[in-house]
């Protein structure tokens, strides 16, 4: 997670660096620390440091870290020749290094030579079966080839060992959703909620999945999670507000004719409708009529 | 009385300063020797997994109330069942850490390396100080201290009449041994500091049994009651929305 102060610092440095104000190295360090994807900027500013022998040597041993960072950024931008040159420099310095070997394998991957990259990664894994980065690369490779089910299989294998890695769970959840395997995705989102219970994002995604699954019980649960999202975001999440309305109407359609157990639940919905209308009035008045009719349709059908 | 003792400047030049310099040099040397001998060990997959299982189970316990009852129960059984639960350790399988240590020569080797790099220079310097400088009064601190500090500052001088603010050479050695940590972290870099005190503490805690962690976590999870928190959230959402509307 990026905290607010870090974000501010990053924006300040980014502005400064873009306008040629120096401190490029500090900016690159921050990007690396926060694991952000700013490949183009990293490539530009990193190369400008690397091409200047004086600046480069002033970094000391950090020079090689910068090389690595630039290689990855260059591959992300498809400047494969730049990446290749940098890898050559690194190779000269660290001939036997596995870390450089990994970069080479990534270059193969970037060129689309899947089989060779796969071979390289497999041999790395034989040496060190608990290398998280290589496991993740293999998942990414399967995904890049469009082999989603293969990626899922590899991720599952990875999660068998590193089961507390919530980023992996999130990736798996999204993969399952893309294959419309909602039950499995729901499990992953439960896992994410467990690991970070106060993050509304996962509550919302979980509710979405449950709503898509359908069925009375799931809908009721989904509604609760939409409610918790509203609570955690302070009612600012439009999707959750719509979700509440949709869930309520779906539930009432399912329970039509049966005994009306809880009347009070509709209150959340009416409140959500009011908040939505207010929001649209403020921010997008031209769309207000559409929203009102859509919401009316929902309440009428219930 | 304290003014009676005059310290020769030769003591400063030939005892106090050489002692400190030697201590620093030995510290630096030890750092490089340790760096040479350090073997990069790859963590064992099983150990990693056990750590991750414990982490995940702990998360589950902490946030149990945020997932539906059905989901919680499924996970609890997954972790705690007595056949193949992740946290369940069969009785006979709980490995004795000592036995484990001997079965893995790498581990013993690593320990020995660490110990060698710590103990040998220490004994040597201590013997050296003892042999050459025993009984020296090496320095005087500029403020008076109570009698309690005598054993700390005047190790090696068995005179009870000497003022406590005088420091014996052997005590100076000990002060350096434990006090140079900050200095090392300055010259060798933050995390590289040769930290004796910390290392000694590590020695004491060595050999913690991972399976103990697993079964402790299992017990904790077993007694965790599930009380789904989400129904309350609907009311809370209502109040939030009410505030927004009004």
UniProtKB/TrEMBL annotation, chain A:
Pfam families: TPR_EMC2
Keyword Glycoprotein: no
GO CC annotation, single: EMC complex
Subcellular location per the Swiss-Prot or TrEMBL entry: Endoplasmic reticulum membrane
Secretion signal span: none
Domain EMC2 TPR-like: from-to ranges: 100-209
Major place of residence: endoplasmic reticulum
Family matches, as InterPro entries: EMC2-like (IPR039856), TPR-like_helical_dom_sf (IPR011990), TPR_EMC2 (IPR055217)
Membrane topology, from the record: Peripheral membrane protein
Description of how the protein assembles with itself and partners: Component of the ER membrane protein complex (EMC).
Function: Part of the endoplasmic reticulum membrane protein complex (EMC) that enables the energy-independent insertion into endoplasmic reticulum membranes of newly synthesized membrane proteins.
Protein name, entry field: ER membrane protein complex subunit 2
Lineage of the species this protein comes from: Eukaryota, Viridiplantae, Streptophyta, Embryophyta, Tracheophyta
From TrEMBL, chain B:
A GO-annotated cellular component: EMC complex
InterPro entries: EMC3 (IPR008568), EMC3/TMCO1 (IPR002809)
Any Pfam family matching the protein: EMC3_TMCO1
UniProt keyword annotations, A-Z: Membrane, Transmembrane, Transmembrane helix
Keyword Acyltransferase: no
Membrane topology: Multi-pass membrane protein
Primary location group: membrane
Transmembrane segments annotated in the record for this chain: 14-33, 119-143
Protein's cellular compartments: Membrane
Any Gene Ontology biological process: protein folding in endoplasmic reticulum
Similarity section: Belongs to the EMC3 family.
Record protein name field: ER membrane protein complex subunit 3
């Amino acid at each position: 997670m990026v905290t607010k102060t870090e974000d501010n610092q990053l924006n300040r440095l980014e502005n400064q660096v873009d306008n040629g104000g120096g401190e490029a190295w500090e900016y690159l360090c921050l990007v690396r620390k926060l694991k952000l994807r700013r490949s183009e900027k990293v490539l530009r500013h990193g190369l400008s440091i690397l091409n200047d022998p004086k600046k480069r040597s002033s970094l000391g041993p950090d020079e090689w870290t910068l090389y690595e960072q630039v290689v990855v950024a260059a591959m992300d931008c498809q400047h494969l020749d730049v990446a290749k040159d940098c890898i050559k420099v690194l190779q000269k310095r660290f001939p036997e290094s596995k870390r450089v070997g990994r970069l080479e394998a990534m270059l193969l991957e970037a060129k689309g030579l899947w089989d060779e990259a796969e071979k390289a990664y497999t041999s790395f894994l034989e040496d060190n079966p608990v290398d998280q980065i290589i496991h993740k690369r293999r998942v990414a490779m399967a995904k890049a080839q469009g082999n989603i089910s293969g990626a899922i299989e590899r991720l599952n294998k990875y999660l068998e060992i590193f089961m507390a890695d919530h980023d992996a769970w999130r990736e798996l959840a999204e993969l399952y959703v893309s294959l419309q395997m909602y039950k499995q995705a729901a499990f992953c989102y439960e896992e994410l909620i467990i690991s970070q219970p106060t993050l509304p994002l996962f509550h919302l995604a979980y509710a979405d999945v449950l709503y898509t699954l359908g069925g009375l019980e799931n809908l009721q649960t989904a509604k609760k999670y939409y409610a918790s999202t509203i609570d955690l975001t302070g009612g600012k999440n439009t999707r959750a507000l719509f979700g509440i309305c949709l869930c309520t109407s779906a539930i009432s359609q399912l329970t039509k004719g049966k005994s009306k157990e809880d009347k009070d639940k509709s209150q959340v919905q009416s409140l959500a409708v009011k908040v939505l209308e207010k929001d649209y009035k403020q921010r997008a008045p031209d769309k207000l009529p559409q929203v009102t009719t859509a919401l009316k349709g929902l309440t009428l059908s219930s | 009385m304290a003014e009676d003792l005059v310290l020769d400047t030769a003591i400063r030049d030939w005892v106090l300063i050489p002692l400190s310099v030697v201590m620093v040099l030995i510290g630096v040397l030890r750092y490089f020797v340790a760096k040479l001998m350090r073997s990069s060990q790859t963590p064992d997959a099983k150990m990693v997994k056990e750590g991750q299982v414990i982490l995940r189970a702990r998360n589950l316990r902490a946030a149990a109330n945020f997932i539906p009852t059905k989901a919680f129960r499924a996970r609890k059984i997954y972790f705690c069942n007595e056949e193949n639960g992740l946290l369940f350790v069969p009785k006979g399988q709980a490995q004795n850490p000592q036995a484990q240590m001997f079965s893995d020569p790498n581990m013993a080797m690593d320990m020995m390396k660490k110990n060698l790099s710590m103990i040998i220079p220490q004994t040597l310097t201590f013997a050296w100080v003892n042999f050459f400088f025993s009984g020296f009064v090496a320095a005087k601190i500029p403020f008076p201290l109570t009698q309690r500090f005598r054993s700390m500052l005047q190790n090696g001088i068995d005179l009870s009449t000497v003022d406590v603010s005088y420091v014996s050479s052997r005590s100076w050695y000990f002060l350096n041994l434990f006090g140079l940590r900050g200095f090392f972290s300055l010259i060798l870099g933050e995390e590289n500091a040769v930290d004796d005190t910390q290392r000694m503490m590590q020695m004491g805690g060595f050999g913690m049994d991972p399976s103990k962690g697993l079964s402790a976590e299992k017990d904790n999870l077993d007694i965790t009651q599930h009380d789904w928190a989400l129904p309350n959230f609907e009311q809370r959402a209502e109040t939030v929305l009410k505030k927004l509307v009004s």
